[in-house]
Amino acid sequence: MALNADMVQKDEDTHNGMLNSSFEKKVRPFLDLIDKLRAMGVEQDVALPTIAVIGDQSSGKSSVLESLSGVQLPRGNGIMTRCPLALKLKKCDSNWKCKIKYQTADGSFDEDIKAPSDVGEAVLEAQKMLAGHQKGISQDLITLEVESSSTPDLTLIDLPGIARVAVEGQPLDIEKKIKELIMSYIEQEKTIILVTIPCNVDIATTEALSMARQCDPQGERTLGVLTKPDLMDRGTENSAIRVLNNQSISLKKGYIMVKCRSQWDIEGSITLEDAIKAERSFFEMHSVFKYIEGKCTTQVLANRLTTELVGQIKHLLPCLRQEVNRKFYETTEELNKFEYGAPTDNKSQIIFLNGLIMKYSANVQSLALGECHRNFKENMMMYAKARCCFAKWFEIVKDQEKSWNADLHDTVKRFMTQNTGRELPGFINYQVFENLAQQHITMLEGPALDILKEVAGDIGGIEGKTV
Fold first, then answer.
1. Which domain holds residue 90?
2. What does the pLDDT look like over 429-440, one tens digit per residue?
3. Tag placement on the chain: N or C end, fewer CB within 10 Å?
């Protein structure tokens, strides 16, 4: 009997393997298409289908992503995700591979990561480069490409956890900045919102779900992930069951429950593989959750996410094609405004670009010198624009001078009394003059910066029109 059971299990595993292989062949081209478009920078002009992962701080978001990707991401107290992190997961038969990419002011960074355990440190270093060494955040994207036989075919965007109170090293408006960053992703109609919600809190109080409902009131593109079921008080499981059955806050895509590694498990050297086995055992043995079909475990979540993302891509492909064609047409029209259009070979492109730069420089120089050409549009004279700003500055200095001169004598007298040293009578200490000058300059600093910004804005606008 045991032999027959083993044979049945073996046949079932073979059948599942064939189904998974067929499934992977179908979904991979769609995911590769979106990844290629994203790599080409199309996302700057056309919103692409993606999955954005959001959650309150300490909601178990990093643990879920670890379980899905098979790599250890930065974990700890406070905000650990300080930049948007694009996780590109690719299932393959070859050995484990990982690459991290990001763009800095000094250029692009592209590095291979040798082992899964090194990923967390590499991401932390990337965040320091982009968001600084303190605890602030940045909108700059970090891309992590993982290829493994155990990862699903999936692309996710991990976003910072929502913090409500700024700690040391964070700007006071950290909550506002995080929410603005999250909203820039989840308000896109093509984005699937993955919200992580701990089982041991009231679902109605989670800020992440509230933000998701703001952008997706009908819950059509939001999927909830319930985390930390092992931390629920005994007897409160029914509240989680109600959420799983969509009887609390309804989402069209529903909810899935997972149990991932805790910090205690990591410190106890529990591997991700062992954690996956422990998760399966937890749900199979649980007195309440074992009766829930198809709504528990990370494997169910991975399959569901891949299906949802590919479904979204298929649904939006016609619309995506139209948007790309429209942008292509608009760009072509812009290029056709040039005399001969843009050349195609490298040598001609360099000559063409040099010609544009020379023409642009000549136009800017003419505008700066106040020369008038008939091909210049109205309100493009830099001198005239700057003169208006300087006229304002002159009035500011005059007003400041009046108020300053009114009590200058008393101020000088006070400063001389306070700073007279061993100098000869009739000689004023240089510090008196220096302090008075510094005071005067400080009073003019704010208005001067305002005028500078105004001039820079006007000149920048004119320069843009000369292109």
1. 19-328
2. 677 777 777 777
3. N
Task: Give the CATH number of the domain where residue 253 resides.
Answer: 3.40.50.300
277 token code pair: 């086995």
Q: Which residue has the higher pLDDT, 412 or 230?
A: 230
Instruction: Give a yes or no: residue 206 inside a domain.
Output: yes
Between β-strands 222-227 and 191-198, what pairing exists: parallel, antiparallel or unpaired? parallel
Residues 366 and 269 in one domain: no
Q: Which amino acid is at 433?
A: F
Phi, psi of 232 (to 5 degrees): -70, 145
- Is the pTM for the entire model greater than 0.85? no
The total number of structural domains that make up the chain: 2
Alpha carbons 111 and 98: distance in angstroms, whole number: 9
The answer to whether residues 103 and 139 touch, using CB atoms and an 8 Å cutoff, is no
Residues 6+ apart with CB under 8 A from 391: none
The CA-atom distances, in angstroms, between 316 and each of 46, 47, 50, 212, 309 are 12, 11, 11, 21, 11
Q: What are phi and psi of 93, to 5 degrees?
A: -90, -10
434 and 308 together in one domain = no
pLDDT at res. 320 = 80
20 pLDDT above the threshold of 70: no
**Amino acid symbol at 115:** A
Residue 361, classified by CB atoms within 10 Å of its CB into exposed (0-12), middle (13-18) or buried (19+), is exposed
d(C-alpha 216, C-alpha 342), whole Å: 42
